Amino acid sequence: MSQAQATVSLPEPTVISRILRGLAGNRTGTIGFVLVVLILAAAIFAPWISQYDPAAIMTGPRMAPPSSDHWLGTDNLGRDLFSRVLAGGRVAMLVAGASLGAALSLGLVLGLVAGLGPRWLDNLLLLLFDALRSFPTIVFGLAVVTLVGPSLFTVILVVAITSVPIYARIIRTQAQSLRNAEFVMAERAMGAGLPRILFVHVLPNVLGPLLILASMDVPLVIATEAGLSFLGMGVRPPTSSWGVILNDGYNFIRNSPWPVIAGSVPIVLVTLGFTFLGEALRDIFDPRLQKAN
Amino acid sequence: MSLLEVDHLEVRYRRLGRVKAALRREEATFPAVADVSFALEAGRTLGLVGESGSGKSTVAKSLIGLQPASGSIRYGGREIGSASQSEWQRLRREISMMWQDPVGSLSPRLSIASLVTEPLKIQGHKRSSDDADRLLSMVGLSTDLGSRYPHQLSGGQARRVGVARALALDPKLLIADEPTAGLDMSVQGEILNLLNEIQSRTGVAILVITHNLNLVRHVTDEVAVMYLGRFVEQGLTDAIFRHPRHPYTEALLSANPSPNPDERHGRTELSGEMPSPFWRPAGCEFHGRCPHARPDCADIVPGWTGEGERGYACRYPL
């Protein structure tokens, strides 16, 4: 064994600096990161960026093309599209954050219970997961909306419920393979209790891949939200959403393409941004893809 | 009284669900380890050898309470098979284990410093800031390694970390499962010297589980040869290496390459694979592969023949 190697060891980079360095070395990763930061900033600071009320119906020009007054033009009711896109971004981020957060935490608990608990409980939970997954998301969403009524909360509920099984299954598989991993056996042999094994040894190894998966799921969630809103089953007018903008614009596409463009381009950008970022994060954290430095 | 006394240890693995077994009128479980008995004194080293799948690691897991077993395991004169949770917690201070996979037995997200001090933390020992450095230097590692992570270590370094973890609580019994697996020859030698040195200093009893016969020859006082979950020969290492009585031991020894290229020896080659423990052969379980088998070996189960300090299970010993 080489002692020389040990003495020239560099300090272990922190996770954040490792992520930043990995992103800087990856072109699509950089693009994704910049897009995501811009989108999040736009969503957070929307009320300060836009100079109009997104819901205010104005007497100004209708279906106007972009101009210095209205950066993305106006829709069929004379509402400022730029303000509406920003407000829609807020809704999209809220839905993504709330529903994925709920799905992740619930999936984590159920997955750990299924993976580490008794066999019959595992089978029961798997049955439940498969039953939920057997509905197409939009059809399931329509069914829930019909029962509960359309609202922002309903959209979050639908996305959370349909995502829980995905996360739970992944956690379950990971937990099962970790349960028999030699390092977990070693901890048990040293007398470590279940809480310590769970929180110190199992969770940190499960959480990383899961967060990456969640970041790649953001576009899916936003598309679901836009889809439900487009069908009139999502957020209620006058609240803005990209799906609502698309729906409004779609009816008047012969008069002006701008509302449809304003509603669809952000969806494309969000999809690209989060997918690029997620893929870059996956590459950074997958040890098999790491180059020796 | 020996430190560790194991009597008629049996470990059964489940083969079929209860319902299926009842319907087919078959046994739901099969013995992976059967009728294993041995004793280990403080300061001594016992080697457990055999092919993969012969039940060596299963014996180890039952000794540290991770595998339910029947029969009797007495540690320091007390039966530990029926020990309560709190008794086990205390026993885990005194019985420690080195795992087979040097890197895989270290939790990947913890730094080396927290990994080596983990036994102290788990057992609620008083800790000081130089514990990690003390333990790392005890096994001959640079203290700079403390800030690294398991995947950044070489196999030999990770193995030393495993030794440091196993010895952190000054155990009385150390179970070493393949302590040299995956290491090159010079590193193997370093690890063995380290174990020998620590044993002579602390008087820890060591149970070495391995298929590396050179390791057995150099570090153990006694050796037990396992086949299909049973002991087929057991005794002082020197005696067994000089004159194996069981044909299986002889085959194992002759399969071990000799460092002298000019040496000509008649090799005893075994044909076939070890049978499955679900369907144990009748008579002597080794008869199908035994080069010296006689017709009645297929019918009569050989008993244990004791011969002074050694014993074997063969009716026609060499």
From TrEMBL, chain A:
The keyword Membrane applies. It is found in: Cell membrane. The chain crosses the membrane at residues 30-49, 91-117, 137-168, 189-212, 260-281. The keyword ATP-binding does not apply. Its main location: membrane. It is a multi-pass membrane protein. SUPFAM superfamilies: MetI-like. Residues 89-278 form the ABC transmembrane type-1 domain. Keywords: Cell membrane, Membrane, Transmembrane, Transmembrane helix, Transport. PROSITE patterns: ABC_TM1. Belongs to the binding-protein-dependent transport system permease family. This is ABC transporter permease. It comes from Chromohalobacter sarecensis. The lineage of its organism: Bacteria, Pseudomonadati, Pseudomonadota, Gammaproteobacteria, Oceanospirillales.
Automatic annotation (TrEMBL), chain B:
Keywords: ATP-binding, Nucleotide-binding, Transport. GO terms for molecular function: ATP binding. This is Oligopeptide/dipeptide ABC transporter ATP-binding protein. Residues 11-253 form the ABC transporter domain. Residues 261-270 have a biased composition (Basic and acidic residues). PROSITE patterns: ABC_TRANSPORTER_1, ABC_TRANSPORTER_2. It comes from the Bacteria. Residues 252-271 are annotated as: Disordered. NCBIfam families: oligo_HPY.
